[in-house]
Structures are given as C-alpha cells and as structure tokens.
C-alpha cells in the first residue's frame, strides 16, 4: 500500500508539471519528515551524488559535443561520407546514418548528434527527392545512436547508479549500436529501391573523395582517440572526455570555424544541461535514500521474485513500463527514477547488469523518438521548421526496428556481451 501511495504521489507531481529534480527531491524529503527520520540525509545525499570522479565526464562530453556542433564539423563529416556512398541506392540516407554513427562515437549526446547532422543532411536529402517524413524520421532516429554507440552519457549515469563498469558498458554498446545503424542503412536502401521521387546523387571523383576525406579525418580521428584510448586503457572515461574536448577545441580552432560568441554559446548551453542533469541526479539520490529506508526496493524485489520468476517476463514488464513512461518523461529522468527500484531484482533473476544497461539504453532511446515528449522529435522539428506530425509519421519504421533490436539482444545476449567479456 505504501509503495502504491509513494508512486502515485510521484506521478501526481510529475503530471502537475513539477520539474523532475524537485519532484524527486521534494518527495524524498517529505518521506523522511513523515517518518521522523533525520533530514541531514538530504544534504548528505546531494553532496554524495556529486562526489563522483566519473560524473566529471558528463560536462566534458557535453562541452565537447557543443563545441563540435557550433564549429560546424558536421558539414565536413557528412560531405566526406557522402563522397564515398552518396551514389549508392539511398546513398544520402546511408551517409546520414554513418555520419550519425561516427558523431555518436564522439559526442555521447543524442540531441547533439541529431542536430549536428540534421543541419546538413535535411536540405541535401529533400533536394534529392526524399520525402520529408522519411528524412525527418531518419534523422530523429539516427540521433539516438548518440547514446548507444559509446561514449554515452546515460551509460555513465547508469554505471554510477549501479556501480557497473563504464568501460564494459561502453564496449557492450558497440555491437547493438552498429547493428541498429546497419538496420537503418538497410531501410534507407529499401526506401530508395521502392520509394518515389528519389534522385540518385552523382558519383564523386577520386580527387573529391580525397579532399573531403582529408577535411573530415581530424573529426573521425577524435572518435579513435576517445574509444581507442578507453579500450587500450590509456585513460579512463573521465579522462577521455577531457582529452576529447581538448582535441575537439583544437580541431575547430584550426578550421577557424568557431567564433568567440559561438564558444560562449557552447559553454553556456553545456552548463545549463549539466546543471539540469546534476539536479535530477541529486533529487534522485534523496528519493533513493528515502525509498530505501521505506523498504520500497526490497518490497518490489520480493513482489517480482514471487510473481515474476522468469527473466523474460521481467524484461517484458520493464519494457512496457518504460514505453509508457517514455510518453511523458525524458530519458535521464526515466533512468534515475527506475534504476534504484529495479536494480536489486537483477541478481535474483540472473540478469547481467551490463546487458540490462544496454537494454535500458535502447528503451530510453525509444523515449527520445516517441510522442508526445520525444526530445529528438522537437529538435528535428525545430531545425527543419516542420510540423511535428511530419516527424512522427516518419519515425515509426525506426521505432519498429528498435523493437527488433531489443528482441535480438534478448535472444542473442552476446550481441552486447561478446566484446566486453569474450574478446
């Protein structure tokens, strides 16, 4: 009964429009006061949630991606990929997905990934006769690769919450991320084969390919520095974020594509997003301590273990809940609300926490492109100056593909676990 009242109270606050951070923190404080528990745990919880070396990587990855976004590196990246595959059937769609995948391996941010490539790809693809809903849906979905292909800010937060290895999570995201990108590429080729109005791009000369590739090499090399450095043990995820920012800044300064005004914009936007994320983390920490004292996670774990004995049923139940929550909450809020409750049940059901982290990431990817509050939908709508209905219409095939990916990693867990544990 207590569990139901607390969850109803949280949902009520969220539906009333109370910001997630204050809904979590305020309800956690209220629970402590009602049970006459020491409220000193509130500042302690807030302080401990920030006292994490790993969390330092979040503002650095955000700053790096914003610097690259403001510096316009997406143009060079897209032009280079297009010069190689643009003449293939659905070539611009393929170039868009590959560009999103490469930028995903740099930024760790879905929004930055979608915005960076969309600015360049939308006019090019529409001019070549691709239907607007397809173009907008492809870019909204392609942007989600930013949190599945490492580095990934949600994976960092997940690792902090669950005390899982962030390196293992990053490596586990590579296989599913590349598979999802491959599915998007296949769909783009099928669209070009059976769609109407599509006009193939002319084949680039070898000289054009060389010029465009040289321009994009520093950006692509940044992905190698970040992922290769982590995998080789040269630096930690936090250190990789700092190194990535330094290299990104050097790239845009060398290109002379980043003015002082744009750099200030990048810093201020990164600061605003960081504060938002950290406030939610702090509120979730207070709420998590409170519900632990109320024995809520233990109670839910008992209910699950007695009522859901099969890992498959548990995964289905979690997936349904996340789909419903994704219609109203953004991805980081879902992660911070759900994981303190769900994580204690994993060991009893024999579910690998790294695998579950990838499953959870794919499900919150879906939240980024499902109406009514899918963040990527609004990003693409804003850039394309389109109606939201156009973006929603175009994104449904990609939602189906993400569901197929969820089924694939459930039936073949090694799609996620082979690289971190068997290579």
| SSE succession | HHHHHHHHHHHHHHHHHHHH
Quickly give the structural class: mainly alpha
Strand coverage percent: under 5%
Q: Give Rg in angstroms.
A: 22 Å
Rounded average pLDDT? 86
The number of strands is 0
Provide structural commentary.
The structure is a single chain. This protein has one domain. The chain is built from 20 helices and no strands. The protein is mostly helical and 423 residues long.
What order do the helices and strands come in, and which of them pair?
Elements: H1 2-15, H2 20-34, H3 41-50, H4 57-70, H5 73-85, H6 91-107, H7 110-127, H8 132-143, H9 153-162, H10 166-194, H11 206-231, H12 237-255, H13 260-293, H14 296-307, H15 311-326, H16 331-349, H17 353-369, H18 375-384, H19 388-411, H20 414-422
Core attributes:
423 residues, mainly alpha, 0% strand
Quick synopsis:
The protein has helices at 2-15, 20-34, 41-50, 57-70, 73-85, 91-107, 110-127, 132-143, 153-162, 166-194, 206-231, 237-255, 260-293, 296-307, 311-326, 331-349, 353-369, 375-384, 388-411, 414-422.
């Amino acid at each position: 009964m207590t569990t139901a009242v607390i969850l109803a109270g949280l949902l009520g606050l969220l539906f009333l429009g109370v910001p997630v951070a204050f809904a979590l923190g305020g309800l956690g404080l209220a629970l402590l006061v009602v049970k006459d528990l020491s409220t000193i745990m509130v500042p302690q919880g807030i302080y401990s949630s920030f006292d994490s070396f790993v969390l330092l990587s979040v503002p650095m990855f955000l700053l790096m991606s914003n610097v690259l976004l403001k510096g316009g590196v997406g143009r060079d990246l897209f032009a280079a990929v297009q010069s190689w595959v643009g003449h293939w059937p659905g070539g611009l769609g393929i170039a868009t997905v590959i560009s999103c995948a490469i930028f995903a391996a740099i930024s760790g941010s879905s929004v930055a990934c979608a915005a960076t490539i969309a600015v360049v790809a939308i006019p090019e693809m529409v001019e070549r006769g691709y239907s607007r809903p397809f173009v907008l849906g492809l870019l909204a979905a392609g942007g989600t690769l930013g949190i599945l292909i490492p580095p990934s800010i949600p994976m960092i937060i997940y690792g902090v919450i669950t005390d899982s290895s962030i390196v293992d999570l990053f490596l586990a995201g590579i296989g599913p991320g590349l598979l999802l990108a491959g599915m998007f590429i296949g769909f783009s080729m099928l669209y070009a084969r059976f769609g109407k109005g599509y006009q193939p791009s002319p084949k680039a000369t070898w000289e054009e390919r060389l010029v465009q590739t040289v321009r994009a090499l520093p950006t692509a090399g940044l992905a190698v520095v970040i992922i290769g450095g982590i995998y080789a043990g040269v630096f930690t995820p936090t250190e990789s974020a700092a190194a990535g920012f330094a290299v990104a800044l050097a790239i845009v300064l060398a290109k002379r594509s980043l003015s002082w005004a744009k750099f200030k914009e990048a810093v201020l936007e990164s600061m605003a997003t960081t504060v938002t994320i950290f406030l939610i983390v702090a509120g979730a920490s207070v709420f998590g301590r409170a519900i632990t004292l109320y024995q809520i996670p233990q109670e839910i774990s008992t209910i699950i273990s007695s009522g859901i004995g099969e890992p498959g049923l548990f995964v289905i139940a979690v997936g349904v809940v996340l789909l419903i929550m994704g219609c109203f909450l953004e991805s980081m809020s879902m992660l911070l609300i759900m994981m303190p409750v769900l994580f204690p049940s994993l060991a009893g059901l024999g579910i690998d926490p790294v695998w579950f982290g990838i499953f959870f990431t794919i499900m919150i990817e879906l939240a980024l492109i499902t109406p009514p509050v899918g963040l990527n939908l609004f990003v693409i709508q804003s850039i394309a100056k389109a109606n939201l209905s156009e973006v929603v219409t175009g994104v449904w095939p990609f939602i189906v593909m993400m569901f197929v990916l969820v089924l694939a990693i459930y039936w073949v867990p090694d799609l996620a676990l082979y690289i971190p544990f068997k290579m």
